[in-house]
């Protein structure tokens, strides 16, 4: 009975707070920040022991359909044509566009918790930029871990003559590491973004849902696009961009739903205490 009540309240809140519209806004900002971020990231890899193929290979695990062709071709073209000030451009553009996306998340979370944004503009923007920088750092770590994890696994495998099952177990562990990193990112986001004081235990449920939801949606949507969806026939050369936008839309929706889950559980907690 409690689950049914929770589900009804969740759907009501998603409709009231225009979750679908907010997801579309997030998708727009995610798309704007994607290429500047990748350009910045791929410019930085000259200073770390990973290659462009390693970075794009990790993204390929989640990117649906042929969107990797779109991403690879555009990033490679920009990197080849503009070698001058890419690093500084990447920093400025990534922080600006991605912080706009964080601002949209802040508004969505404030709606979820029924609070007004009364913080100063510079505090809100500063918080968004700090969260953006933190997310960039964590994403870089997330990109490095699978690369180093693969190399470490191969080294152990070849040095000690372990069976092939070891590599299967190692790859499973790497997926677990990805889950932990995503869970950490979402937890920080749910704690810092809304204009309300929250404790760690108040956001764990939403973080868990967002992590599982985002990974599941990415895999399922990628499978659908690869086997059933034919966006190219409908949208022509824009098919790849449409697929990318839908993926970002679904990702934004998972983030917003996680915030609404936290808001409902906090409301129930306060009602129970009273």
TrEMBL record:
CC annotations in GO: plasma membrane
Keyword Coiled coil appears in the UniProt entry: no
Entry keywords, A to Z: Cell membrane, Membrane, Transmembrane, Transmembrane helix
Membrane spanning stretches: 26-48, 86-106, 127-149, 169-191, 203-225, 237-265
The keyword Membrane belongs to this UniProt entry's keyword annotation: yes
Membrane topology listed for this record: Multi-pass membrane protein
Localization terms from the record: Cell membrane
Pfam families reported in the protein's UniProt record: Virul_fac_BrkB
NCBIfam families reported in the protein's UniProt record: yihY_not_rbn (TIGR00765)
Protein name: Ribonuclease
Organism annotation: Sutcliffiella horikoshii
């Amino acid at each position: 009975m409690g689950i049914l009540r929770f589900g009804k309240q969740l759907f009501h809140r998603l409709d009231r707070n225009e979750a679908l519209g907010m997801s579309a806004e997030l998708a727009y900002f995610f798309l704007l920040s994607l290429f500047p971020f990748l350009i910045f990231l791929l410019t930085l890899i000259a200073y770390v022991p990973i290659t462009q193929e390693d970075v794009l290979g990790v993204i390929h695990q989640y990117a649906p359909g042929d969107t990797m062709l779109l991403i690879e071709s555009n990033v490679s073209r920009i990197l080849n044509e503009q070698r001058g000030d890419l690093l500084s451009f990447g920093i400025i553009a990534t922080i600006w566009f991605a912080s706009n996306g964080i601002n949209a998340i802040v508004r969505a979370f404030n709606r979820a918790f029924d609070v007004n944004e009364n913080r100063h503009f510079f505090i809100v923007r500063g918080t968004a930029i700090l969260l953006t920088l933190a997310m960039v750092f964590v994403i870089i770590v997330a990109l490095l871990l699978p690369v180093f994890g693969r190399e470490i696994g191969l080294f152990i495998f070849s040095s000690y003559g372990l069976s092939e099952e070891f590599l299967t177990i190692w790859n499973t562990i790497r997926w677990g590491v990805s889950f932990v990193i995503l869970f950490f990112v979402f937890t920080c986001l749910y704690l810092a973004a809304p204009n309300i004081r929250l404790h760690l235990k108040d956001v764990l449920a939403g973080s868990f849902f967002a992590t599982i939801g985002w990974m599941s949606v990415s895999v399922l949507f990628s499978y659908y696009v690869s086997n059933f969806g034919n966006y190219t026939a409908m949208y022509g050369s824009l098919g790849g961009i449409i697929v990318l936008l839908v993926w970002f839309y679904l990702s934004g929706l998972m983030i917003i739903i996680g915030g609404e889950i936290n808001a409902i559980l906090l409301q129930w907690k306060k009602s129970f205490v009273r």
